[in-house]
Amino acid sequence: MKGFGWNPWHGCRKCSEGCLNCWLYRMDGKYDRDTSKIVESKTAFDAPLKRDRKGEYKIKSGTEVGTCFASDFFIEDADGMRARAWAVIKSRPDLNFLIPTKRTARIADCLPNDWGDGYDNVLVAVSVENQKRADERLPYLLDAPLKKRGVLAAPLLENIDLSEYLNGGKIDFVSAAGESCFGARECRFEWILDLRRQCEKSGTAFEYRQTGSNFVKDGKRYKIPHKKEYEQAKKANLNLAGKAAKMHKRT
User: Fold this and answer.
1) What distance in Å separates the CA atoms of residue 125 and residue 207, rounded to the nearest whole number?
2) How do residues 188-244 score in pLDDT, each as one tens digit?
3) CA neighbor of 158 nearest in space, from 121, 117, 190
4) Torsion sign over Cα 110, 116, 121, 126
5) Global confidence as pTM
6) Number of neighbours of residue 134 by Cβ within 10 angstroms
7) Cα separation of 110 and 113, whole Å?
8) Are 96 and 63 spatial neighbours (Cβ–Cβ below 8 Å)?
9) Residue 93: how many CB atoms within 10 A of its CB?
10) Which residues, 6 or more positions from 81, have their beta carbon under 8 angstroms from its beta carbon?
C-alpha cells in the first residue's frame, strides 16, 4: 500500500552533520522561503481526518503516514501545535504514523498525557548519520516509552556500530541510505553491508533504501542519478524481515 506524507507544519533548523545538504533547504531556496521559520500548515494540518464526498476517509485504513518530513515533530517551535497533532494521530488508530526525528532528547517531554507506554499506531525513528550522533540520540530513543522504534541511518556518512543498541530487541528496524544531491558526500557499500550484518545478527529488520548519489563499491566510485538510487539499492537484495512482526514498510 502506498504511503502518505503528512506535514502539519513546515520548516526546520539544521542541528548536525547530516543536515549540511538538507533537501528541504534546497527546495525552499528555489522559492526564497525561509526554512528556519516553522509555520503551521493551513491546509494539511488535519489531512488524516479529511473525508471524500461519500463520507469516507481520503487516507485509507492501513496506510503508512510519514509525519513531519518537512520539519521535525519534536522541534521546540512546534510545542504550541503538537498537542493538536497528537489528537489527530489518536483519532486515526487505523493508520500507521512514522515519525522521524533528530531531537530524541525531547521525546519524553513532548508526549500527550494519555500516552501511557505508547500509541499502537506510532513508530518513532531516529535519524543518525555517524557514530557520534548514534551514541548521542539512541539512548534517548531506547529510554522513551514507545511501542515501536526505528533507526534511519541516513544520510550515512561513515561506518556505524549499532550493535549495543540492537541487541536488546527494542529497535524494530534499521533503514540505510546514502546522501542524494548535487555535491553529495560519499556512501560506501561496505558500510551498508556492515549495518546489515549487525541487523542479521540481532534479528532486526533491515532496509537498504537508496544508494546515494556518490556511491563507492569495491574501491570504485559511481555517480548515480537520483531516479536510479532506489532501483539500484533494491537490486542489491539486502533487505531483511527480521524477527519483529512490526516491521516498518515503505513503498
Assistant:
1) 13
2) 999 999 999 999 999 999 999 999 999 999 999 999 999 999 999 999 999 999 764
3) 190
4) positive
5) 0.93
6) 21
7) 9
8) yes
9) 13
10) 8, 9, 40, 45
